[in-house]
## 1
Amino acid sequence: MSQDIDDFGYHPTTEFQGNFIIFNEPDEISVLNRFFEHIREVKPSIFVTFNGDSFDWPFIETRAGILGINMYEQIGILIHFEFIIH
């Protein structure tokens, strides 16, 4: 969020072409709203993550909650984690 960047392409080989469309947002709440808007738009049935269950989704849900956004109301996904400390 320090500066706007332009769309760009990453083409490591002719077989793998990647054109990235950039959304420059002014603040965190706008980034989260854009993310939720995209999920509502494409309606994915599968999310593929590396560390989604133990970090990504709980982090997104927590940050959204702190900013007054209910993730379940936005995209219909409810994450519930119970951490037990011994």
Note: The mean pLDDT is 87.
## 2
Amino acid sequence: MINFNKLLIKIGLRKPDINRESFEAYFHKLPNNIQVSWSRDDKFIIGHIKAEEKEFMTQGYNADEFIEMVNDAVIAVYDIPEDYIDVLRWSKKTYSPDPEQRKLLEDANVRSGNFGSKKERVLQLA
């Protein structure tokens, strides 16, 4: 059964109940740095992610989807509640390769690579 409150939040008719202390706790729960090693097969970009003491994998069809999946994987592994996911994404830069590494990730002729990324706050929660 679909939770009615979650449905209202998803369609934008209700804002999630977010409190500052919980936001800060979840923000600080996320790793400060991640390292991503990736390789390309015929259909997917497959990535191995190291975040502090945790290691996990994800995949995507293209560079944009892969970067989104890296962020989704980090959020899932660090057990961030659904109500806080969008707020955390808006309040910090997502984990993403620098422009030079992103070009390699976007180039279908490049078979593998790696990048590091760090968490940075760009907005304060009021």
Note: The first helix runs from residue 4 to 10.
## 3
Amino acid sequence: MRDELLFDADLKCYDKTLIEEWVLTFAQVCDELGQDPAEAQMAQAGRAVLKWAENVAIPIRQAVNVPWVCRGSLHMLADDLKVGWHPDYKSRLGAILALTAVDDEVGGK
């Protein structure tokens, strides 16, 4: 970005590609859980998705295939809650973030 080798549209397209690949992987892992999985099973599923995110190599451009770009991009998407690892990541992080917001409002840490 600093050297203007990538454009905003390139990054949006790359994020979209990563999200599409994550959706496929996340759905496959969650499908294997079945009905009413135990917490240990959900934690194991979350580790499987994280392992995928740490090992997948989707190049941002054909000549740019260093693995840290993909890993970093997936973690940035996770920071924005667009992807996640644990099958119940949205509600769990939502509860934590809501508590943090309440703490901030009342002067807590």
Note: Residues 8-31 form the longest helix (24 residues).
## 4
Amino acid sequence: MAFWRTHPFAWAWVPGKYIHGDHAPLVLTVSLRRHDLSPRWKEVVQPARGRFTHHLELRQASEIDDQIRSLLKEASSLAE
């Protein structure tokens, strides 16, 4: 599932459809213009200059907390 404004800024996806082995039931991917240094990210990649894609494994709904909501708001504002 993709979240859009004029551009996509976040995605929720089921890794079991693409990856074998032990993994979380859901991954939230957030695109930012900066590298967020939180240790919560499973992986952060820079697919293009000035774009950082952050992957967060989710096992419980409570993991979407104020920190993640704030980053989603930041990502959303950049996608206008």
Note: The chain has a mean pLDDT of 94.
